[in-house]
């Protein structure tokens, strides 16, 4: 008998592709055949990054692609938002793909799993009457709860009907929930006001669709966010989804990983290295880049710093930097982050607080220094610093810069206070227990698997 066939559709961005790939690998291990649908643009990057090409022809997670509607690199860099292009063309492309697969021998799609941000894909599932539909949320439940609360925010006069922020104020939906400044709402802290309105509409549409699915699962845990899950019981935790799945291949990574840094870490004492990484999209201006470089030098501790080539295009390191730092610091363009965070030499994680990075740090009991830029990163920072108390944030100076002195002081504060590490270790234990036999995330995942098979 052929295996039940799932089609999985991530939102086309690194922080979305990787966790859905982990989820898909987990489902494949449980006996499903999974067709994983990237945009052509993302697919090309993944293929370039994969060292073992046979992965693409892997029996149970099969990588395929469809166009996203942006024709050229110029258009990709231009004003038309990817989310607009996606909404215009991808539903038809997906429909055609599913119809083609359904005609193949033993390949009929029985379940569609789409990123919650792909409301258009959930609409295709409804139209094609796919029997089982799951929305997957790769970020904190609290972020989704905030999206669900948009009508309340409008009613309370915090935002306008089009998402425009009317009042700058701190918002906390309930005690023990993260705090967020209204001007940092996910749609409100990116681009100009017309971009923000498009994003807001996009989010309203996806949130509406997410309410219609059979299952809405989230890469988080009850233990980390009890209040958020209590506020929206429809959202179910199945995280942390990481695990050993990424060790054997780099499927899902958009850049080739430089694993030589693991040998470098092997030579460092336990709990000594500052790991610095800002995810897949954040970029620096020259002043901020150089302040960070000088702070790491000043800290006089070993550091491993991920400097993506596009993070620092044409920004020079401070004069004589590499010579002064010597073997105390290593810069790589893309690290095997999960392996790095699991390495015993890591003392702390200076992070932009993307949710995947947050889950990966938490799952390894690593304390954080928080440097959020946009989207859900402010909510995640509040969880880390205010709710779980496993990290510290930075203060900017009057010119909006985080200075080398500030960074150095916070490094010393965090590493000088053993309570941060103790709380981080406790949080790790909770996160690991929930995915073991009898744990909450484990039970939910098992139920989901049974339901898809039924
Ligand atoms: C984006 C948003 O920034 C984030 O806030 C949201 O929650 C998801 O989408 P991104 O910026 O890429 O994500 O950050 P993050 O969520 O942390 O995901 C980055 C992923 O890339 C992580 O899984 C991390 O392990 C991986 N990574 C990062 C590497 O494998 N190597 C690196 O060198 C850096």
TrEMBL record:
<dbReference type="Pfam" id="PF00201">
    <property type="entry name" value="UDPGT"/>
</dbReference>
<feature type="domain" description="Glycosyltransferase N-terminal">
    <location>
        <begin position="6"/>
        <end position="146"/>
    </location>
</feature>
<dbReference type="InterPro" id="IPR058980">
    <property type="entry name" value="Glyco_transf_N"/>
</dbReference>
<protein>
    <submittedName>
        <fullName>Putative 7-deoxyloganetin glucosyltransferase</fullName>
        <ecNumber>2.4.1.324</ecNumber>
    </submittedName>
</protein>
<dbReference type="Pfam" id="PF26168">
    <property type="entry name" value="Glyco_transf_N"/>
</dbReference>
<dbReference type="InterPro" id="IPR002213">
    <property type="entry name" value="UDP_glucos_trans"/>
</dbReference>
<dbReference type="InterPro" id="IPR018247">
    <property type="entry name" value="EF_Hand_1_Ca_BS"/>
</dbReference>
<keyword id="KW-0808">Transferase</keyword>
<comment type="similarity">
    <text>Belongs to the UDP-glycosyltransferase family.</text>
</comment>
<dbReference type="GO" id="GO:0080044">
    <property type="term" value="F:quercetin 7-O-glucosyltransferase activity"/>
</dbReference>
<dbReference type="GO" id="GO:0080043">
    <property type="term" value="F:quercetin 3-O-glucosyltransferase activity"/>
</dbReference>
<keyword id="KW-0328">Glycosyltransferase</keyword>
